[in-house]
# Entry
Amino acid sequence: MNDRLFLGIIFLNIIKAKYMIGDDTMKGQIHSIESFGSVDGPGIRFVVFFKGCPMRCKYCHNPDTWEMTGGQEMTVDEIIAGYNRNKSFYKNGGITATGGEPLMQIDFVTELFKKCHQEGIHTCLDTSGITFTPNNTDKFDQLIKYTDLVMLDIKHIDPQKHIDLTSQKNDNILAFARYLDNNNIPMWIRHVVVPTITDDEKYLFQLGEFIGSLKNVKALDVLPYHTMGAKKYEALGMKYPLEGIEAMDKAKAIECKKIIIKGFKKVRNIEK
# Structure
């Protein structure tokens, strides 16, 4: 996919997500909602899965979120009402916007997070940062005013291997990380380790060096690849891209994390 087509798709999807025909109320295209998420930010969270994603990650376990169609149109007030029905359970949690790629609907996410802050609700953005535009950050400047935490998923540190894995470049993703860091937005970095694809020691170390250059990273999640998404591809009539690659052993994932931390420590001049 060339850059011009990629930007065109993003623009059209933003317009589609912003307005429902015949109604000026902003509505988001929502795939689903998880009422009691425990792995999508601090505490127990109300997790909103947004439709739309320009990436085609080979290990994606939510391919049904890629397209903007087929979801449910919801207003900010409807989402907040859903949160409030179980508000007492989210005392140390909040609302997480994930997907898909929530930044495909940045105007709606901004309005949602703004409303959350008005009601004292902690906000978390779970994103790849793929839609970031370094030369025009106006919309992102508005969003981060109401964003308490970003969970940034870095798929691969190597530019070409990132394209091979996701169909997209990683330059805007890394630029987004630096942008968040420069604006003092707390980040949790996520990285999925896939056997033979993202577990190379050279690139894990380089990833650690990049993370070490960021001053506002609060956590690192190294997630072992699993094959649970394979059945979903089958149900959707799609060929699973990583067929034949076995799930990553948790012990191996821990070793991969140690290599990332070595790179981190090198940049930070930490000896132990």
Confidence is low (pLDDT under 50) at residues 15-23. The first strand starts at residue 19 and ends at 20. DSSP finds nine helices and ten strands in the chain.
